[in-house]
Structures are given as C-alpha cells and as structure tokens.
Design goal:
Layout: H1 20-32, H2 35-42, H3 46-60, E1 65-67, E2 72-74, H4 76-101, E3 108-114, H5 116-133, E4 137-143, E5 157-161, E6 170-177, E7 179-183, H6 185-188, E8 204-207, E9 216-221, E10 224-229, E11 232-235, H7 239-247, E12 252-256, H8 257-266, E13 270-271, E14 281-287, H9 295-310
Parallel strand pairs: 3-4, 3-5, 8-11, 8-12
Antiparallel strand pairs: 1-2, 5-14, 6-14, 7-12, 7-13, 9-10
C-alpha cells in the first residue's frame, strides 16, 4: 500500500490558456453585432474568424454567441464572459499604451458617463484644458447616463448622484450638493400658503428620482425620509428639464441649489419652506477596482477631484 503524500494539485481545476486574439475577436463581434464586421475591423480573414470563435467557446466550455442567418446575440454565458474579457483587454490596452507612448503621455480612449447637469456645467467648462494637456487621449462623454453599467464596459468612469450602486466600485466623494424646493409666484399665488410639510400634499412636484409611485414623493429632511402623497409627480433624470418646467409654473421643483441659484436671486423662483434642512445629494466619481491603476483613469480622477476641491 502506498503511504506517500497525496498530490493536492490533482484536485485543483486546470487553468486554461486563452488566445488574446480570440478574446478580442469575440468582444469586437459583440460590440459590432457580427463576426464579419469584427473580422473586418481587426483585419482577420473571415474564414478564420469562425474557427477562432469556436476555439474560444471550446476553451470556455460554453457557447458564447447565438448565430444564424438572421440572429446574432450573446448567450447568458457570453454576457458573463464579455464583462470579464472587456475588463482584461482594457487593462492590457492601458498598459501597452502607457509603455509605448512613454512616461507622462496618455493615449487611447476614455469614456465618461455623467448626469446632464454635471456633464454640461462641470465637464463642459473644464474638459478643454484636460484635453489640451493630453492631446493623444480621446475623451468621450455621454451625458444623461450616470447609471452606466461599468461592469458591462459601458464606461470607464462615471459621475453619480447618491450612493446607489457604488458599493462594488471605487467611489471618490466629490461634493454634497445642497437641494432646494422652489416654485414661481404664478404657481404659488393662487394656492394656499405652504407653512409646513403637510401643506405640500395638494401640490404638483417635479423631481429627478425615477422610482416610486406617480403620486408619492420622498423628501429627505435632516437625515430622515418623509414620504408624502401629493397631487401629482413629474419625474425625469434631466435636472435642467425639471428647472425649465418649474420656471414654467408647472409645479414645485426639487433641484440642486447651484442650478436654481440665479433664478432665486432674480426673483423668478421662490424657495418653498426655506427653513427645511433638506439632506444634500451626494455626488461621487466611480470606477471599477480592477481599473484603479489605469493611467488614464487615475489622471482623470485626480483632475476631477481637484476641480471639486477648488469649487
């Protein structure tokens, strides 16, 4: 009987070596919606593209793409693999660009997702200087998409309102944005005076929270959330649209103080229940932990943090 030591490695799963060209072809096919356009984009012979995909699927042990004459879509396993593949390729591309471009030079593409207001008012003002400093870096900003799924490679970094969805990512706090309830005199004049939170019930509200019921709003006051049944609620993720409708006397708007300040100063808008201490909205810059060492992301994050620090 053999009494030697058991080789524990025999119970460990065998690691598989993937071809990066196969992985890149798969991600490009998922991006462009077909093997043929992916092969053209990567200068891969069309005859070998199908074989590369089959080889990758054999390595993964699952079919990654549904493909046919009229149908081309990711399988469930393909969607899962695409997330990891996209992250790995992004990291490798960052490193290769950094090494080939030389120290202090950024190149490639940086994709930023931000809410309408912050994308235009903040990045629109300061991005030209950033782009001048790094002319080889292509910056793409998608406003109105602060909920972009970074795990599915929809953006490299995102500016987000609130903490929702930040737990699995690196979240750098930018600022706490004071909020204000406001309305025009034309809207308020024909209605009963508002002296307490309970007086808000018969009013129309314009808010940016895309959740809840049509006739219910949530007001965060001094750390506590008050749910109110109101006359009606208009919801949009576009804060500037909310402000325009508020100025058009369509209801009471809940908007950032910085967005409404000039209209409050001019008298076009009046603060509703100004003594209320509304909880500020937290603004964060988020990115994936696996991308924390990406030179382009690190440089952009430091740049944005510096902007908010000075504001």
């Amino acid at each position: 009987m053999f009494h030697g030591k058991t080789n524990k490695r025999t119970s460990e799963p065998k690691m598989r070596d993937f071809s990066l060209s196969d992985v890149r072809l798969f991600t490009k096919a998922a991006q462009l919606g077909g093997l043929t356009p992916a092969a053209d984009a990567l200068s891969v012979p069309k005859a070998s593209a199908s074989r590369q995909l089959q080889r990758l699927e054999a390595m993964v042990g699952h079919q990654l793409l549904h493909r046919g004459s009229t149908r081309f879509a990711l399988t469930e396993e393909g969607r899962e693999f695409l997330v990891a593949a996209g992250q790995v390729l992004s990291i490798l591309d960052d490193v290769m660009l950094s090494l080939s471009s030389g120290a202090g030079t950024l190149a490639g593409r940086l994709r930023v997702a931000a809410p309408h207001y912050y994308g235009r008012e903040l990045l629109g003002v300061h991005l030209p200087d950033f782009m001048s400093a790094y002319p080889q870096l292509e910056v793409v900003v998608e406003t109105g998409n602060d909920r972009a799924d970074l795990f599915r490679d929809e953006a490299d970094v995102a500016i987000r309102r609130g903490r929702e969805g930040c737990d699995e990512m690196v979240a750098r706090h930018l600022k706490n944005e004071p909020m204000v309830l406001c309305a025009t005199a034309d809207y308020l004049a024909p209605r009963q005076a508002i002296e307490s939170v309970s007086d808000l019930a018969p009013h129309a509200f314009l808010v940016s929270e895309i959740e809840g019921r049509k006739k219910e709003i949530s007001l965060s006051i001094t750390g506590k959330t008050h749910r109110l049944n109101v006359e009606s609620v208009f919801q949009s993720d576009d804060l500037e649209l909310i402000l325009k409708l508020t100025l058009a006397a369509k209801g009471i708007g809940l908007v950032p103080l910085s967005l409404a300040r000039s209209h409050l100063d001019s008298g076009a808008l009046s603060s509703v229940l100004p003594a209320l201490k509304l909880t500020p909205q937290e603004i964060n810059l988020v990115y994936l932990p696996s991308r924390r060492h990406s030179p382009k992301i690190k440089t952009f994050v430091d740049y944005v943090l510096n902007i908010f620090k000075q504001s």
